[in-house]
Specification:
By secondary structure, the protein is α/β, with parallel strands linked by helices. It is about 35% helix and about 25% strand. The chain has a single domain, classed as Glutaredoxin, CATH 3.40.30. The protein contains 4 helices and 5 strands. Strands 1-3-2-4-5 form a 5-stranded mixed sheet. β4 and β5 form a beta hairpin. The longest helix has 16 residues. It is globular.
Length: about 110
């Protein structure tokens, strides 16, 4: 069972604003090779950071309005939210260590 929440138009705002801690959202698409490479990285981090940082995914093809709202121009894009506000953003595939460092440096 995945610890990663699937987001879409209907639950996005509530998920990022009602979380008790930071939320890392992966903006991705099914056809994106680098996005698929991020799946095991995010699964591992979700287990490692369970409780400290929530991890979620948003398919940009299914929710283009949200991707546009956050100026997502390339994927995969990771956006870190805290209290419903964007605190950091990075684009491109990354290792588990790089993503963990990105989160730690941003909080």
């Amino acid at each position: 069972m995945s610890l990663i929440q699937k987001l879409q138009e209907q639950n996005f705002s509530e998920a990022i604003s009602s979380s008790s801690g930071p939320v890392l959202v992966d903006f991705w698409a099914e056809w994106c090779g680098p996005c698929k490479m991020m799946n095991p990285v995010l699964e591992n981090l979700a287990g490692e950071l369970d409780g400290a940082v929530a991890i979620a995914k948003l398919n940009v093809d299914d929710s283009p309005e949200i991707a546009q709202r956050y100026n997502v121009r390339g994927i995969p894009t990771l956006i870190l939210f805290n209290n419903g506000e964007v605190v950091a953003q990075r684009t491109g595939a990354a290792s588990q260590q790089q993503v963990k460092a990105f989160i730690e440096q941003s909080l």
